Amino acid sequence: MQVLRTPDERFIGLPDYDFEPHHTDIAGRVDGTVLRVHHIDEGPADAAPVLCLHGEPSWSYLYRHMVGPLVAAGHRVVAPDLVGFGRSDKPADPDVYTYQRHVDWLADWLVANDLQHITLMCQDWGGLIGLRLVAAFPDRFDRVVAANTLLPTGDAPIGDGFLTWRRFSQEMAEFDSGLVLQLGTVTELADDVVAAYNAPFPDPSFTAGPRRFPLLVPVEPDDPAAEANRAAWAVLQRWDKPFLCAYSDHDPVTGGFDRDFLERVPGTRGQAHTTITGGGHFLQEDRGPELAATVNAFIAATAP
User: Any catalytic annotation for residue 102?
Assistant: First the structure.
């Protein structure tokens, strides 16, 4: 398996992103290849972690405006880059990327770092993968914050917003992550911020991961990942630990999918669910401090 690694100099001087890098080697699950997964780890080492999972086609840079407020509230903030994204290794072959491998890769990283008493903060693919981890390791998680995400099984229509995005993602001559972030935000992004989202991908050979992701979302009942997601829902439908929905008001892709969680997950009952106003799909970029304040209030309200 050919694995690409973005040169470190691509990440020097990015605006508002001066966090110390941390790396974990995991089994690549293909040909015995080892993959290096990057994460940031800020705040007290002995505090319960807030695990911030990004989606497509962003990376831990997306959480830069949330780290400070979360740490100031006393929390440890851990934000990995998924395989194929950010400072993590990037298999060059698109066929290496499957939904199950993404779950397995992050599960291996989670176990290697032995995170416990986790508050999961998940958005976009961060939820599609992170909620599978909650189902697989329920004892490691204390609570969940779901923001602009879903856990599809293909048993119900996924909506025109996602299908339009999937088509667009495959028709782009060159995958431009900065452009995608700008299209998915309400805020006009500065040029250096757009460049930061493109930093992990020096040339098109590095973009197999983001190019592949939209094709991995289960949109039909017989999708390869559908049954595993149904099994995860079976666990979530018994999940009575705190579960908060914090969706934005300007997201054409996942808007309305919070209803699935509110109707099916017991832990959502009685929680202070909120709509983050003025946020697009990438609400961490548009309204990061507001979302961080929501997470802080949720943890404080549900602490033992």
Answer: no
**Which pTM does this prediction carry?**
0.97
Q: Verify whether residue 75 is a known catalytic residue.
A: no
Q: Which of 38, 39, 75, 281 is catalytic?
A: 281
Return the number of other C-beta atoms located less than 10 Å from residue 237's C-beta: 11
| 222 part of the active site | no
Catalytic residue among 124, 142, 176, 286: 124
Round to whole Å and give the CA distance between 282 and 59: 11
> Which pair of structure tokens corresponds to residue 149?
């995400």
List per-residue pLDDT tens for the chain, 304 residues long.
899 999 999 999 999 999 999 999 998 778 889 999 999 999 999 999 999 999 999 999 999 999 999 999 999 999 999 999 999 999 999 999 999 999 999 999 999 999 999 999 999 999 999 999 999 999 999 999 999 999 999 999 999 989 998 899 999 889 999 999 999 999 999 999 999 999 999 999 999 999 999 999 999 999 999 999 999 999 999 999 999 999 999 999 999 999 999 999 999 999 999 999 999 999 999 999 999 999 999 999 999 8
For the record, the structure tokens of 127 come out as 């939820």
Contact of 189 with 182, CB cutoff 8 Å: yes
**Which entry of 104, 108, 223, 251 is annotated as an active-site residue?**
251
Does domain 3-302 fall under CATH 3.40.50.1820? My reply is yes
